[in-house]
Structure formats: C-alpha cells, structure tokens
TrEMBL record:
It is found in: Cytoplasm. The lineage of its organism: Bacteria, Pseudomonadati, Pseudomonadota, Alphaproteobacteria, Hyphomicrobiales. It catalyses: 3-phosphoshikimate + phosphoenolpyruvate = 5-O-(1-carboxyvinyl)-3-phosphoshikimate + phosphate. Keywords: Amino-acid biosynthesis, Aromatic amino acid biosynthesis, Cytoplasm, Transferase. It comes from Roseibium marinum. PANTHER family: AROM/DEHYDROQUINATE SYNTHASE (PTHR21090), PENTAFUNCTIONAL AROM POLYPEPTIDE (PTHR21090:SF5). The active site is at residue 327. Residues 10-19 have a biased composition (Polar residues). Its EC number is 2.5.1.19. This is 3-phosphoshikimate 1-carboxyvinyltransferase. It holds the Pfam family EPSP_synthase.
Length: 451
C-alpha cells in the first residue's frame, strides 16, 4: 500500500489569517461501520458522505472479498449490496488493511464468528500494533487463530461452525475491542454481553440498532455500561448520511484558534458526546468556539462550529475525558504549545498503541520545535507561550495524525515546520492540504530552508 512508498516530506509555514467556511470529510468510525453493517444486511444500503480515505477503502476491499458489492454512484454516494449475516464467502486472497486499526479489528470480529478462513496483513505501523485485545475474546468464542509473536499481524483466523456467545468485560477503554466482540456476537446464537467500565464511542451500538439488531444498553450497580446483543438478527439495509469527522475537525479548529486573526466556520460536524472532548477542553482553555445550528441527523447530533483566534491558557485535562478525545491529543498538544502556562494531560496510556507510540512521537515533535514538554509513561505536560518556535523536522512514524498536528504547528509557529512524510495523511484526510490552502495556509513540498 502507499505507506510503503517513498516518504514525501512536507512543510507548512505561516500564511495569511485563516478565513472561510469548510466541511471536513466524513467520520472515519461511521464510514467503516457503514460498509461493514451494509455487508451484513441483505439488500442495498446507501451511504452519503463516506470518507474516501485509504483506511476506509481498505475496509471496502475486505467487504468485497466476502461477497459484498460496493460501488460509487454518479452522485458521489456509495451503495453496498449486502449478502447477509451468516452468508459471508471465504476470501480468495490475503486481506491487506494498510494502516487501518479500526478496519482490521472490527473485521476480525465479523469474520471470526463465521466458519471461513481469512488472513490479514498491514503496513509497518499496523504490524506493530497489538491484536491480542481482539483475538483473545475471539478465541473464547471458538475462533482458531494463528498470529505472529505477541499476537501481531500477519494473522490468520478461522471461525467455528457455531460461535459461542460471550460475556466480556473490556479490559481497556477501547471502542474497537467492544465493537469486535459485539460484531462477533452477531453471528453467535444467544446473547452476547459486553461490559464497558469506561464509556467509549458508541457508534456500533447506535448503528446496529438502526440496522434492526436487538441491542440494549443499561448501567449496572457499579455504573458500568452493559451492552446486550441478541445473536443472529436479520439486519435491514439503511440509508446513511455520514456527518463530518470531529477528529478531522480538530485540525482546523486548533489552526483557527492559534493563527492570529483567523475566523473559520466548519460545517456539519458530528457532536456525539463520546467524541467532543477536544472541543470541551479547548473552550476551557479559553478558545472562542461557538456551536451553532445544532441538529439531529440519522440518530446523531451534528452542528456547525465557528472558531476565532484566541488567547489560550494551560489547564489540566481530566483523565476521564481521554476516551472522548483519544485521537485528538496530538493536535491538543499543539494548541498547548501556544497556551500560556502548563497543559497537563494524564491518562494517556492508550496513546502508546495507536498508529505510532503517539505519546513519544508528540513529545519528540515538540522538542524538535523548541517547545518544552515532559513525557511520563502515561502523561504529557506541555509548557506553552504565545510564540511557539518551530523550525524543526518531525518524524511521523506512518501516523497521519502526527503529520497533520505538526503541520498545524507550522501554520502558527515562528518558523516553518517540516514533517518527514506528508503522504500518510491520506489515511484519514486526503484533502487536508487543499482544504487548508483554501483557508490561507501555506505548504511547500520537501523540507523548508528555514527549517
Ligand atoms: C475507533 C476507536 C478508537 C480510535 C480509532 C477509532 C473506532 O480506537 O482511536 O481511531 O472507530 O472504534 P481504540 O478502540 O483503540 O481506542
């Protein structure tokens, strides 16, 4: 896949104030799930606003490999002709998920309770990430697994003739693990129960209910979410309108707050309560973010954001907020570089196993740009100031969000900032540079002379 191709360094530097109205691409979590659940329904699901990024296109290939027909229509929407739960065909080739953690983990859940064999591979980043968190509950449901040492990719699985329903307590705050178990439970007779001590994004629960599954969510005496799913439902095709991705919106939000004189409107952003931790945090830091035109589409709240350049101050970000902004810490760290005083971010242990070790990648990136920070096993403290320095080159480690976060730093810093590979951005936000250039940002291919 393209991440194995030659790296393409990219530099950003201060342009004009950022102004204009934009839309960010469709939500990545909802896009993956639309293709997957459409495959498991019988009939035609339509998806408007699908994120057309490498990660999501890898999921489309995987779903085609088990028999779904997925096509782009002339109006830009996608159709998924599903073949139905229990009827998946055995893939004829190895499935390459590239960089896509959500794609591979959720697909392992779906395939793992079907009596088919499948082999999964990924790029250098995905091949380092732990898969045991999904493979272990699958083993408990009767799936045979052969994986590289430490349960890394490449991995092969074969589901049992009849999977066992499971009661599973998710050991780490992970929507991917929760989802993989629920999706495996779809093809197991009886009730699958997932207990979630720390709430995470709930797109799987909401969307499965929309596709007609019998699924309920309650709280137990300890206040933990208990999700009950009745196995072997008949899923009904849906018409889905994918809202803008709040994780992608994080980049123009932080850019607009930190580039002096900016005033940007970002339309149609998903405002699901499990995804809005960054907005809450930036408002606490003094960010001028106004949410207008709140409305509901397809069972999700969306709204438009008006963001103006602001004087930010450092704060302590509650650790309990981490799951609702887990992908946003790199860009929050960039905002913190411009905030007066210290921003303390605890509860970051899951950042170590993202597309890169994001805690280390962020800390090294800040240091390369003269911004003081302290990294511990699971915390980051950034000491900011109005004039973040810049001038450094950041190693992205095949991590799209590291690349985008540090390009945002370059937009507002004293000196340009270079990332060693801008091509990785295609994982989640292919139009990143075009969209930012339209707002007034300045990019140059290669390393800057001043950097
Ligand atoms: C996702 C869950 C999160 C998040 C990822 C998308 C999902 O991963 O980081 O980008 O769509 O379920 P974890 O489950 O590892 O926290």
């Amino acid at each position: 896949m393209s991440h194995d191709s030659a790296p393409a360094p990219l530099t950003s530097s201060m342009g004009t104030p950022l102004t204009g109205t934009i839309r960010v691409p469709g939500d990545k979590s909802i896009s993956h799930r639309s293709l997957m659940f459409g495959t498991l329904a019988v009939g035609r699901t339509t998806v408007k606003g699908l994120l057309e990024s490498e990660d999501v296109l890898a999921t489309a290939s995987a779903m085609r490999a088990v028999g779904a027909r997925i096509e782009k229509q002339p109006d830009g929407s996608y159709t998924v002709d599903g073949i139905g739960l229990g009827s998946l065909l055995e893939p004829e080739h190895v499935i390459d998920f590239g960089n896509a953690g959500t794609g591979v983990r959720l697909t392992m859940g779906i395939f793992g309770s079907h009596n088919i064999a499948a082999t999964f591979i990924g790029d250098a980043s995905l091949s380092k990430r732990p898969m045991g968190r999904v493979l272990n509950p699958l083993r408990d449901m009767g799936t045979n697994v052969i994986a590289r040492d430490g349960d890394r990719l490449p991995a092969s699985i074969r589901g049992p003739e009849q999977a066992l329903p499971l009661t599973y307590r998710v050991p780490m705050p992970s929507a991917q693990v929760k989802s993989a178990v629920l999706l495996a439970g779809l093809n197991a007779p009886g009730e699958t129960v997932v207990i979630e001590p720390i709430p995470t994004r709930d797109h799987t629960e909401k969307m499965l209910a929309g596709f007609g599954a019998e699924i309920s969510v309650s709280l137990n005496e300890a206040g933990e979410r208990v999700i009950r799913l009745k196995g072997q439902p008949e899923l009904k095709p849906q018409n889905i309108d994918v809202p803008g991705d709040p994780s992608s919106a994080g980049f123009p939000i932080v850019a607009a707050l930190t580039v002096p004189g900016s005033d940007v409107i970002i339309g149609n952003v998903l405002l699901n309560e499990h995804r809005t931790g960054l907005i809450t945090t930036l408002i606490e830091m003094g960010g001028d973010i106004e949410i207008v035109n709140r409305r509901e589409t397809g069972g999700e709240e969306v709204g438009d954001l008006r963001v103006k350049a602001s004087r930010l101050k450092g704060i302590t970000v509650p650790a309990t907020r981490a799951p609702s902004m887990i992908d946003e810490y790199p860009v929050l760290a960039v905002a913190a570089a411009f905030a007066q005083g210290d921003t303390f971010m605890p509860g970051l242990e899951e950042l170590r196993v993202k597309e890169s070790d994001r805690l280390a990648a962020v800390a090294r990136g800040l240091e390369a740009n003269g911004i003081p920070c302290v990294e511990t096993e699971d915390t980051l403290t950034v000491t900011g100031g109005a004039n973040a320095i810049g001038g450094g080159t950041v190693v992205t480690h095949l991590d799209h969000r590291i690349a985008m976060a540090f390009l945002v730093l370059g937009m507002a810093a004293h000196k340009p900032v270079t990332v060693d590979d801008g091509a990785v951005i295609a994982t989640s936000f292919p139009d990143f540079t075009a969209l930012f250039s339209g707002l007034g940002a300045k990019f140059a291919a290669g390393a800057s002379e001043a950097a």
